[in-house]
What does this fold into?
Amino acid sequence: MTKNMIIFGDARNMKELHDNSVHLVVTSPPYFNAPFDYPDLFKSYDEFLSLMRNVARELKRVLDEGRIAAFVVDDTLIKGKKYPVVADITKTFIEEGFKYRERIVWVKPEGYIRISRRSGVLLQHPYPMYYYPDNLQESILIFQNGEFDYKKIPEKLKEESKIDIQEYQKEKWYLNVWQITNVLPINNRLEKGVAAFPEEIPYRLIKLFSYKGETVLDPFLGSGTTLKVALELGRKAVGYEIDIELLDVVKKKLKIDQPALIGNIPEFEIIIREDIKHLRTQLQEKVAKNNKGK
Ligand SMILES: C[S@@+](CC[C@H](N)C(=O)[O-])C[C@H]1O[C@@H](n2cnc3c(N)ncnc32)[C@H](O)[C@@H]1O
It folds into this structure.
Protein backbone atom coordinates (compact mmCIF):
# COMPACT_ATOMS: atom_id res chain seq x y z
CA MET A 1 0.00 0.00 0.00
CA THR A 2 1.44 3.36 -1.04
CA LYS A 3 1.71 6.05 1.65
CA ASN A 4 1.34 9.82 1.18
CA MET A 5 4.65 11.06 -0.23
CA ILE A 6 6.21 14.18 -1.66
CA ILE A 7 9.45 13.66 -3.50
CA PHE A 8 11.56 16.64 -4.44
CA GLY A 9 13.42 15.40 -7.49
CA ASP A 10 13.10 14.88 -11.25
CA ALA A 11 9.91 13.07 -12.32
CA ARG A 12 11.83 11.27 -15.07
CA ASN A 13 12.83 8.90 -12.31
CA MET A 14 10.07 7.66 -9.97
CA LYS A 15 12.15 5.02 -8.24
CA GLU A 16 10.21 5.48 -5.00
CA LEU A 17 7.11 4.01 -6.67
CA HIS A 18 6.53 0.33 -7.39
CA ASP A 19 5.20 -0.90 -10.73
CA ASN A 20 1.38 -0.62 -11.01
CA SER A 21 1.12 1.15 -7.62
CA VAL A 22 -0.73 4.28 -8.83
CA HIS A 23 -4.44 4.44 -9.71
CA LEU A 24 -4.71 7.92 -11.26
CA VAL A 25 -2.38 10.65 -12.50
CA VAL A 26 -3.60 14.27 -12.55
CA THR A 27 -1.07 16.88 -13.58
CA SER A 28 -0.08 19.88 -15.61
CA PRO A 29 3.50 19.86 -16.85
CA PRO A 30 5.55 23.05 -17.03
CA TYR A 31 4.26 25.17 -19.91
CA PHE A 32 7.01 24.99 -22.50
CA ASN A 33 9.04 28.17 -21.89
CA ALA A 34 5.83 30.20 -21.46
CA PRO A 35 6.94 33.85 -21.11
CA PHE A 36 4.79 34.50 -18.01
CA ASP A 37 5.69 31.35 -16.06
CA TYR A 38 8.65 29.39 -17.42
CA PRO A 39 10.82 31.62 -19.65
CA ASP A 40 13.79 29.69 -21.11
CA LEU A 41 13.26 26.70 -18.78
CA PHE A 42 14.09 24.35 -21.66
CA LYS A 43 16.96 24.78 -24.10
CA SER A 44 14.75 23.66 -26.97
CA TYR A 45 11.29 22.32 -27.79
CA ASP A 46 12.88 18.89 -28.33
CA GLU A 47 14.23 18.98 -24.77
CA PHE A 48 10.69 19.66 -23.52
CA LEU A 49 9.26 16.79 -25.59
CA SER A 50 11.99 14.47 -24.39
CA LEU A 51 10.95 15.23 -20.76
CA MET A 52 7.34 14.37 -21.69
CA ARG A 53 8.45 11.08 -23.27
CA ASN A 54 10.55 10.05 -20.27
CA VAL A 55 7.76 10.90 -17.85
CA ALA A 56 5.25 9.01 -20.05
CA ARG A 57 7.48 5.91 -19.80
CA GLU A 58 7.67 6.12 -16.01
CA LEU A 59 3.91 6.67 -15.80
CA LYS A 60 3.31 3.60 -17.95
CA ARG A 61 5.31 1.62 -15.41
CA VAL A 62 3.78 2.98 -12.19
CA LEU A 63 0.14 3.21 -13.36
CA ASP A 64 -2.01 0.19 -12.70
CA GLU A 65 -3.68 -1.67 -15.58
CA GLY A 66 -6.50 0.26 -17.24
CA ARG A 67 -5.91 3.44 -15.26
CA ILE A 68 -5.90 7.08 -16.35
CA ALA A 69 -3.26 9.78 -16.76
CA ALA A 70 -4.85 13.24 -17.16
CA PHE A 71 -2.62 16.02 -18.49
CA VAL A 72 -3.70 19.67 -18.47
CA VAL A 73 -1.78 21.28 -21.31
CA ASP A 74 -1.93 23.96 -23.94
CA ASP A 75 -0.14 24.99 -27.07
CA THR A 76 2.39 27.68 -26.26
CA LEU A 77 2.91 30.94 -28.07
CA ILE A 78 6.45 32.29 -27.89
CA LYS A 79 7.53 35.34 -29.83
CA GLY A 80 4.72 34.90 -32.34
CA LYS A 81 5.41 31.17 -32.89
CA LYS A 82 2.89 28.54 -31.79
CA TYR A 83 4.22 25.22 -30.50
CA PRO A 84 1.76 22.30 -30.97
CA VAL A 85 2.17 20.97 -27.42
CA VAL A 86 -1.28 19.33 -27.26
CA ALA A 87 -0.75 17.34 -30.47
CA ASP A 88 2.84 16.38 -29.62
CA ILE A 89 2.05 15.18 -26.09
CA THR A 90 -0.88 13.15 -27.45
CA LYS A 91 1.40 11.55 -30.05
CA THR A 92 4.12 10.87 -27.47
CA PHE A 93 1.72 9.11 -25.07
CA ILE A 94 0.28 6.98 -27.88
CA GLU A 95 3.81 6.02 -28.97
CA GLU A 96 4.63 5.03 -25.38
CA GLY A 97 1.69 2.62 -25.33
CA PHE A 98 -1.18 4.61 -23.84
CA LYS A 99 -4.67 4.64 -25.30
CA TYR A 100 -5.87 8.17 -26.21
CA ARG A 101 -9.27 8.20 -24.55
CA GLU A 102 -10.52 11.78 -24.54
CA ARG A 103 -9.74 15.45 -24.84
CA ILE A 104 -11.74 17.78 -22.64
CA VAL A 105 -11.59 21.48 -23.38
CA TRP A 106 -11.30 23.66 -20.28
CA VAL A 107 -12.84 27.06 -21.04
CA LYS A 108 -12.01 29.99 -18.78
CA PRO A 109 -14.40 32.91 -18.21
CA GLU A 110 -14.30 35.57 -20.90
CA GLY A 111 -13.74 38.36 -18.40
CA TYR A 112 -10.33 36.80 -17.72
CA ILE A 113 -8.89 38.36 -20.82
CA ARG A 114 -8.86 41.87 -22.20
CA ILE A 115 -8.37 42.36 -25.89
CA SER A 116 -4.64 41.75 -26.24
CA ARG A 117 -2.19 43.36 -28.57
CA ARG A 118 -2.39 40.14 -30.59
CA SER A 119 -6.15 40.15 -31.23
CA GLY A 120 -6.26 43.95 -31.26
CA VAL A 121 -4.25 43.96 -34.48
CA LEU A 122 -7.49 43.41 -36.38
CA LEU A 123 -8.97 46.58 -34.87
CA GLN A 124 -6.03 48.51 -36.27
CA HIS A 125 -6.24 46.65 -39.59
CA PRO A 126 -9.84 45.49 -40.14
CA TYR A 127 -8.98 43.42 -43.19
CA PRO A 128 -8.57 39.72 -43.99
CA MET A 129 -5.41 37.95 -42.75
CA TYR A 130 -4.97 40.09 -39.60
CA TYR A 131 -6.88 37.64 -37.38
CA TYR A 132 -5.09 36.34 -34.23
CA PRO A 133 -7.66 35.34 -31.57
CA ASP A 134 -7.01 35.41 -27.82
CA ASN A 135 -6.82 32.09 -26.01
CA LEU A 136 -9.51 31.15 -23.48
CA GLN A 137 -9.00 27.39 -23.29
CA GLU A 138 -6.65 24.58 -22.33
CA SER A 139 -6.87 20.88 -23.03
CA ILE A 140 -7.29 18.11 -20.49
CA LEU A 141 -5.83 15.07 -22.23
CA ILE A 142 -7.04 11.72 -20.92
CA PHE A 143 -4.79 8.72 -21.57
CA GLN A 144 -5.52 5.17 -20.47
CA ASN A 145 -3.07 2.40 -19.62
CA GLY A 146 -4.82 -0.49 -21.40
CA GLU A 147 -8.23 -1.92 -20.52
CA PHE A 148 -9.88 -1.43 -17.13
CA ASP A 149 -11.36 -4.48 -15.44
CA TYR A 150 -14.64 -3.11 -13.98
CA LYS A 151 -15.36 -6.45 -12.26
CA LYS A 152 -12.26 -6.12 -10.06
CA ILE A 153 -13.79 -3.36 -7.90
CA PRO A 154 -15.73 -4.64 -4.86
CA GLU A 155 -19.39 -3.51 -4.66
CA LYS A 156 -18.82 -1.79 -1.31
CA LEU A 157 -15.99 0.35 -2.70
CA LYS A 158 -18.09 1.20 -5.74
CA GLU A 159 -20.89 2.47 -3.51
CA GLU A 160 -18.46 4.46 -1.32
CA SER A 161 -17.03 6.16 -4.43
CA LYS A 162 -20.34 6.78 -6.15
CA ILE A 163 -20.57 9.90 -8.31
CA ASP A 164 -23.20 12.45 -7.33
CA ILE A 165 -25.52 12.42 -10.33
CA GLN A 166 -27.07 15.77 -9.39
CA GLU A 167 -23.66 17.46 -9.39
CA TYR A 168 -22.76 15.65 -12.63
CA GLN A 169 -25.85 17.01 -14.35
CA LYS A 170 -25.96 20.46 -12.79
CA GLU A 171 -22.30 21.23 -13.50
CA LYS A 172 -22.49 19.56 -16.95
CA TRP A 173 -19.62 17.12 -16.35
CA TYR A 174 -21.14 15.05 -19.17
CA LEU A 175 -19.89 17.53 -21.78
CA ASN A 176 -16.34 17.55 -23.11
CA VAL A 177 -16.24 21.30 -22.54
CA TRP A 178 -15.74 22.31 -18.91
CA GLN A 179 -16.36 25.92 -17.92
CA ILE A 180 -14.15 26.55 -14.91
CA THR A 181 -12.72 29.77 -13.51
CA ASN A 182 -8.91 29.80 -13.52
CA VAL A 183 -6.74 30.72 -10.52
CA LEU A 184 -6.77 34.49 -10.72
CA PRO A 185 -3.42 36.28 -10.85
CA ILE A 186 -3.77 38.09 -7.52
CA ASN A 187 -0.50 39.44 -6.10
CA ASN A 188 1.13 37.62 -3.17
CA ARG A 189 -1.02 34.54 -3.60
CA LEU A 190 0.55 31.27 -2.52
CA GLU A 191 0.73 29.96 -6.09
CA LYS A 192 2.46 33.02 -7.61
CA GLY A 193 4.75 31.94 -10.43
CA VAL A 194 3.60 28.31 -10.35
CA ALA A 195 0.82 28.33 -13.00
CA ALA A 196 -1.50 26.44 -10.65
CA PHE A 197 -4.76 25.00 -11.90
CA PRO A 198 -8.08 25.48 -10.03
CA GLU A 199 -9.09 22.80 -7.52
CA GLU A 200 -12.21 22.05 -9.56
CA ILE A 201 -10.10 20.27 -12.22
CA PRO A 202 -8.52 17.61 -9.97
CA TYR A 203 -11.84 17.47 -8.05
CA ARG A 204 -13.74 16.30 -11.13
CA LEU A 205 -11.00 14.02 -12.43
CA ILE A 206 -10.40 12.31 -9.08
CA LYS A 207 -14.12 11.69 -8.59
CA LEU A 208 -14.56 10.46 -12.16
CA PHE A 209 -11.47 8.23 -12.40
CA SER A 210 -10.51 6.85 -8.97
CA TYR A 211 -12.01 4.99 -6.05
CA LYS A 212 -11.78 5.91 -2.36
CA GLY A 213 -8.48 4.93 -0.73
CA GLU A 214 -6.64 4.67 -4.06
CA THR A 215 -3.42 6.50 -4.89
CA VAL A 216 -3.37 9.70 -6.96
CA LEU A 217 -0.04 10.89 -8.38
CA ASP A 218 1.02 14.32 -9.64
CA PRO A 219 4.48 14.12 -11.28
CA PHE A 220 4.62 17.94 -11.66
CA LEU A 221 3.35 18.98 -8.27
CA GLY A 222 3.82 22.78 -8.37
CA SER A 223 1.93 24.19 -5.38
CA GLY A 224 0.29 20.82 -4.63
CA THR A 225 -3.30 21.40 -5.81
CA THR A 226 -3.85 17.78 -6.93
CA LEU A 227 -2.57 16.36 -3.64
CA LYS A 228 -4.71 18.71 -1.56
CA VAL A 229 -7.88 17.68 -3.39
CA ALA A 230 -6.91 13.98 -3.40
CA LEU A 231 -6.63 13.99 0.40
CA GLU A 232 -9.91 15.88 0.78
CA LEU A 233 -11.58 13.18 -1.33
CA GLY A 234 -10.19 10.33 0.77
CA ARG A 235 -7.49 9.23 -1.66
CA LYS A 236 -3.77 8.77 -1.02
CA ALA A 237 -1.48 11.35 -2.54
CA VAL A 238 1.98 11.21 -4.10
CA GLY A 239 3.81 14.01 -5.89
CA TYR A 240 7.11 14.85 -7.56
CA GLU A 241 8.49 18.37 -7.88
CA ILE A 242 11.94 19.34 -9.12
CA ASP A 243 11.97 22.86 -7.65
CA ILE A 244 13.00 22.71 -4.00
CA GLU A 245 12.04 26.38 -3.62
CA LEU A 246 8.40 25.21 -3.64
CA LEU A 247 8.81 23.18 -0.45
CA ASP A 248 7.22 25.84 1.78
CA VAL A 249 4.41 26.52 -0.70
CA VAL A 250 3.50 22.82 -0.83
CA LYS A 251 3.71 22.48 2.96
CA LYS A 252 1.37 25.48 3.37
CA LYS A 253 -1.14 24.24 0.81
CA LEU A 254 -1.26 20.79 2.38
CA LYS A 255 -1.17 22.30 5.89
CA ILE A 256 1.82 20.19 6.85
CA ASP A 257 3.49 23.30 8.27
CA GLN A 258 1.05 23.50 11.17
CA PRO A 259 2.14 21.13 13.92
CA ALA A 260 -0.87 22.12 16.04
CA LEU A 261 -3.14 20.54 13.48
CA ILE A 262 -1.16 17.36 13.08
CA GLY A 263 -3.87 15.22 14.59
CA ASN A 264 -6.25 16.16 11.80
CA ILE A 265 -4.02 15.82 8.79
CA PRO A 266 -2.69 12.75 7.07
CA GLU A 267 0.99 12.01 7.46
CA PHE A 268 3.38 12.70 4.62
CA GLU A 269 6.83 11.37 3.94
CA ILE A 270 8.91 14.15 2.35
CA ILE A 271 11.96 12.98 0.41
CA ILE A 272 14.52 15.47 -0.87
CA ARG A 273 16.73 13.94 -3.56
CA GLU A 274 20.00 15.16 -5.02
CA ASP A 275 18.52 15.94 -8.45
CA ILE A 276 16.52 18.97 -7.21
CA LYS A 277 16.84 22.39 -8.84
CA HIS A 278 16.38 25.95 -7.63
CA LEU A 279 13.98 27.51 -10.12
CA ARG A 280 11.30 29.80 -8.78
CA THR A 281 13.36 32.90 -7.87
CA GLN A 282 15.35 32.72 -11.07
CA LEU A 283 12.22 32.29 -13.23
CA GLN A 284 10.35 35.11 -11.48
CA GLU A 285 13.31 37.44 -12.01
CA LYS A 286 13.25 36.63 -15.72
CA VAL A 287 9.47 37.18 -15.92
CA ALA A 288 9.88 40.59 -14.21
CA LYS A 289 12.67 41.49 -16.64
CA ASN A 290 10.55 40.44 -19.64
CA ASN A 291 7.63 42.53 -18.36
CA LYS A 292 9.86 45.59 -17.91
CA GLY A 293 11.09 45.28 -21.48
CA LYS A 294 7.52 45.65 -22.79
C1 LIG B 1 2.43 23.96 -14.30
S1 LIG B 1 3.30 23.58 -12.81
C2 LIG B 1 2.18 22.60 -11.92
C3 LIG B 1 1.16 23.41 -11.17
C4 LIG B 1 0.21 22.57 -10.33
N1 LIG B 1 -0.77 21.87 -11.15
C5 LIG B 1 -0.51 23.44 -9.33
O1 LIG B 1 -1.75 23.50 -9.34
O2 LIG B 1 0.17 24.09 -8.52
C6 LIG B 1 4.55 22.46 -13.30
C7 LIG B 1 5.60 22.14 -12.24
O3 LIG B 1 6.48 21.14 -12.76
C8 LIG B 1 7.76 21.32 -12.17
N2 LIG B 1 8.75 20.58 -12.95
C9 LIG B 1 9.39 20.97 -14.08
N3 LIG B 1 10.21 19.99 -14.53
C10 LIG B 1 10.08 18.94 -13.67
C11 LIG B 1 10.65 17.64 -13.60
N4 LIG B 1 11.54 17.22 -14.51
N5 LIG B 1 10.30 16.84 -12.57
C12 LIG B 1 9.40 17.26 -11.63
N6 LIG B 1 8.83 18.48 -11.65
C13 LIG B 1 9.16 19.31 -12.65
C14 LIG B 1 7.92 22.84 -12.17
O4 LIG B 1 8.90 23.24 -11.24
C15 LIG B 1 6.50 23.31 -11.83
O5 LIG B 1 6.36 23.54 -10.45
